[in-house]
Amino acid sequence: MKYTSFSTDDILNLEKDFRSNFVNSLNGFKSINLIGTISNQKQSNLAIFNSVIHVGANPPLLGLLMRPPSVKRDTLTNIRETGYFTINHVTEEIYVRAHQTAAKYDSQKSEFEAVFLTTEFSENFPAPYVKESVVKVGLKLMEEHTIESNKTIFIIGQVMEAIVPTHCILKDGLIDLNLAGTITGSGLDSYHSVRKISRLSYAKPGKDIEKIG
Amino acid sequence: MKYTSFSTDDILNLEKDFRSNFVNSLNGFKSINLIGTISNQKQSNLAIFNSVIHVGANPPLLGLLMRPPSVKRDTLTNIRETGYFTINHVTEEIYVRAHQTAAKYDSQKSEFEAVFLTTEFSENFPAPYVKESVVKVGLKLMEEHTIESNKTIFIIGQVMEAIVPTHCILKDGLIDLNLAGTITGSGLDSYHSVRKISRLSYAKPGKDIEKIG
Fold first, then answer.
1. What string of DSSP letters covers A135-189?
2. Is there a contact between A160 and A138 (Cβ–Cβ < 8 Å)?
């Protein structure tokens, strides 16, 4: 197989969109989530993110990276204002509408209405979920870290509520995301469906890995 | 569809392994990468991570979350010692060996040898790549952020070198990860292959999204 090698300078010299597509491919497949928020004036907001990661199970924490707040970012503003946000998995049924939330609507327009997705509120949580989503997580802002290299913001949220299709919860706690219909993404605009290869047994030195499901 | 709702307390009261599997499923599908490092004493190390995210394209930056350094963590120690590490995509051919790197080998044993993967060095970069991988990225440590909520460490690296199969680089810069054979993961032990649904056009208010590939 023939490989092409790019140095930092090669990457910096790429045309802007080419560079963006290229560097966005380097980490592999990404989670695709819709982040739901609401302002103090009760204006809801919805935005697609591909940077949500697991941070810890006890306490339950997720993290996500947000672009620099140099221009107006409603999601970040709302999270700072209210302290709450939701993470909603994207399925093949809603991925085109999810992608459309990336359009630069003005702040008076809710992306929920603009893309025909529905706000859903639970009794105990202030930020809006996406009714059409499958796995829905309500989080409370815990920490904000500014990445000095490019002024992006890494946000940590604690899980306050997780709403999961009952039949997708396996007996050892794993959520069957294939059954739920969650999809994955690559680059900035590429969406992919997922097929399970296998689960693997806990790794120990000198012990062969087994396929466990 | 019937849903089950979990509060923070419900999650904290779950059995430890159940909670770990459950919370690790909440962010959706994850990137699966092997992180290659080497100590100052030239002992190589390889470890599987599911937390690598894109941080920025200009300068090209990736981030990853590492567990707390409360016990010996060779990957973090080596990154701090040398300032360099590699990120290597995992394919269906090597995922069982990749998973086995999670076993707690002692520091004198290289996971490369233990799991039968091969170190590969480029001319201009000190940390080892995985020969059997497809997309390989060499990074320089730029920043380290301690997440106060659970003492995990968020690392930022700048891309110094990206080695990519030539035929997988599309004309607009996106790397065709399906063609490369990169896989994705969920939870802590579940591996999945990926099929492209579609690429979508740039989102603008009032403009319909088109499938572009």
1. SEEEEEEEEEEE-TTT--EEEEEEEEEEEEEGGGB-TTS-B-HHHHTB-EEETTT
2. yes
Query: Longest C-alpha distance within chain B, in Å?
Result: 60
3-state class (DSSP) for residue B155: strand
B83 exposed, middle or buried (CB, 10 Å; 0-12, 13-18, 19+)?
A: middle
Cα angle B204, A11, B157; round to 5:
95
Taking CB atoms and an 8 Å limit, are A6 and B104 in contact across chains?
Answer: no
Q: B165 preceded by cis ω (within 30°)?
A: no
Q: Does B183 touch chain A (CB under 8 A)?
A: yes
Judge whether B39 and B128 are in contact, CB under 8 Å.
Answer: no
Q: Give pLDDT tens digits for B67-81.
A: 988 878 899 999 999
In this predicted model, what pLDDT tens digit does every residue of A25-54 receive, in sequence order?
999 999 999 999 999 999 999 999 999 999
- ipTM comes to 0.97
Residues 6+ apart with CB under 8 A from A53: A31, A62, A63, A64, B27, B30, B51, B53, B65
Tokens, residue B8: 């923070």
Percent over 90 (pLDDT), chain A: 93
Distances from the Cα of A114 to the Cα of A9, A58, A99, A107, angstroms: 40, 37, 12, 12
Q: Do the beta carbons of residue A100 and residue A189 sit within 8 Å?
A: no
Alpha helices for chain A (secondary structure H): 8-12, 16-23, 74-82, 95-100, 111-114, 177-180
Extract the tokens encoding B154: 């968020």
State how far residue B79 is from chain A, nearest Cα, in angstroms: 18
- The secondary element (H helix, E strand) that includes residue B120 is strand B119-120
- Determine, for residues A187 and B175 on separate chains, whether the beta-carbon distance falls below 8 Å: yes
**What pLDDT does residue B72 have?**
80
- Tell me which chain A residue has its CA closest to the CA of residue B60: A23
For residue B47, the tally of other CB atoms under 10 A from its CB is 20
At B86, list the tokens.
Answer: 């590699």
Name residue A89's beta-bridge partners: A33
